[in-house]
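Technical annex, item 7. During the second reporting period the consortium partners agreed on a shared format for inverse folding records so that results from different sites could be compared directly. Each record opens with the tokenized structure and is followed by the designed sequence. A conforming record, contributed by the partner at site C, is shown below for reference.
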């Protein structure tokens, strides 16, 4: 039986979302195939192996995987027969797992740092590797690579914290000169729409940028597109596949954090997307092209804007560790494509072992 370490929580603004995703994943994992150990990362970055997985009710998310502080755990980052070994120095307890399933989002988790730790320990894990994770998480870097690859992205400006602090007026004037309102202001490397504000006039732009800079030292200003929001799921390593497309119909001003997770009526999800079949196929192909361009592997949810009137579509962003809550688009799209939630998790684990074998076959000596 494969020993799975279900990693959740994290030191990011998406900590709570991860707890919700982890509850759904824990319930769906086939306990006849896997022995599952819940490993929570607290908001301060400390790891805590749970004595047993405990799903509890939550007023905002419905249910979450509880995260209790259980001692002082040390992570062995050296190769120990490709297992992750964690020690509790308070009582000497040792826990070993064969595979890490990271159901964890945002900074320090989805951006390559966690993946780097796991690769130093030579432990197989699900999802993109260090390179793919880091590139996709950095929205500015991702846009530059996508644009270079001929994939249409929303026009944008990038703002660096120190430059903005030194001369905010000049930067705002440049933005207003180049991009038309409404504008979306967002942290460069955050997810779940955290820190994003829609701005309709110049007087509100400085405040929105300062808000986004609370979450990241680099901020994106994007031109607002009057559009349909279309999503596509991708699964695979060297031969990825794309799901059917889905459509998000926000009931809020835009698809905000509250609309995604808190308000049960915040958005309508339509699968398949109510768009022309040829456009849907073009989006699916572009999703695969983008997946390759950003060096992704394992999985990703890829978000597009389909402009009303013109039928032009823009790639908005790529999420390499997408949400896995009961209402998340990534598993729902695969379910409607013919791959149920539990089977999807099996496939992600298979792909993680496959990627691991490709890493460890490489020579480390000249």
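Designed sequence (site C submission):
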């Amino acid at each position: 039986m494969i020993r799975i370490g279900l990693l959740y929580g994290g030191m990011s603004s998406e900590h709570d979302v991860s707890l919700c995703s982890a509850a759904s994943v824990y319930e769906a994992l086939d306990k006849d195939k896997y022995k599952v150990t819940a490993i929570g990362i607290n908001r301060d970055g400390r790891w805590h192996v749970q004595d047993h997985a405990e799903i509890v009710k939550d007023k905002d998310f419905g249910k979450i995987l509880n995260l209790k502080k259980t001692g002082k755990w040390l992570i062995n980052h050296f190769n120990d027969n490709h297992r992750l070994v964690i020690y509790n120095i308070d009582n000497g307890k040792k826990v070993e797992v064969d595979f890490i399933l990271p159901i964890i989002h945002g900074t320090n988790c989805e951006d390559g740092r966690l993946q780097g730790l796991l690769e130093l320990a030579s432990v197989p894990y699900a999802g993109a590797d260090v390179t793919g994770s880091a590139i996709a998480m950095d929205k500015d870097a991702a846009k530059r690579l996508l644009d270079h690859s001929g994939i249409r992205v929303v026009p944008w400006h990038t703002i660096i914290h120190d430059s903005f602090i030194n001369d905010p007026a000049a930067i705002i004037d440049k933005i207003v000169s180049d991009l038309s309102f409404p504008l979306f202001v967002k942290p460069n490397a955050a997810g779940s729409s955290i820190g994003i504000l829609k701005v309709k006039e110049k007087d509100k732009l400085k405040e929105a940028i300062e808000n986004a800079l609370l979450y990241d030292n680099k901020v994106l200003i994007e031109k607002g597109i009057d559009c349909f929001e279309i999503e596509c799921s991708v699964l695979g390593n060297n031969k990825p596949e794309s799901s059917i497309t889905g459509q998000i119909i926000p009931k809020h001003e835009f698809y905000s954090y509250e609309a995604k997770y808190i308000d049960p009526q915040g958005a309508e999800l339509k699968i398949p997307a109510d768009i022309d079949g040829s456009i849907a196929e073009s989006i699916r192909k572009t999703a695969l092209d983008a997946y390759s361009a950003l060096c992704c592997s394992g999985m990703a949810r890829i978000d597009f804007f389909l402009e009303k009137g013109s039928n032009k579509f823009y790639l908005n962003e790529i999420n390499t560790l997408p949400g896995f809550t009961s209402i998340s688009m990534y598993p729902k799209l695969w379910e409607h494509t013919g791959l149920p939630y539990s089977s999807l998790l099996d496939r992600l684990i298979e792909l993680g072992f496959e990627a691991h074998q490709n890493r460890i076959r490489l020579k480390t000596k000249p």
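Residues 2-125 form a domain with the Rossmann fold fold (CATH 3.40.50.20). The first helix runs from residue 15 to 28. All partners now use this format for quarterly exchanges.
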